[in-house]
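tool_call: predict_structure(chain=1)
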Amino acid sequence: MTSAAIRAAGTAVAATEREEARREHRLRLAVSLAGFALMLVALLYRGVPRGPAIFEVVGMGGLFFGGSAVFSFLKLRALSSDAAAPRGDGEDQEAGQPGGAVGAEDQPDRAMGQRVGSPGDR
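tool_result:
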């Protein structure tokens, strides 16, 4: 395989994984919002519970559904901004420029997007 084919395969795998993550977080967001809406409907229909039940229904239910919805929303936003930003894999820039492509023969361990070394080496 040539270095361009290896880069293309790595990019395709990354795009597939990113799309799977987006689908999962969309589902999580929809389920969280639906659960939160059902909890609100139950509160409106039955009334606000008194005593320790308010902690269980409003506190734990609201925390779970609200927290899940916020987490999924933020993750979707991060995935969307990652997809829009150039990745520096050589697709948008020329070789030799900052973030440009480096041939697989020069750094074979990074051919499939794997990172080597410590964070200070980059």
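agent: DSSP finds two helices and no strands in the chain. Proceeding to next step.
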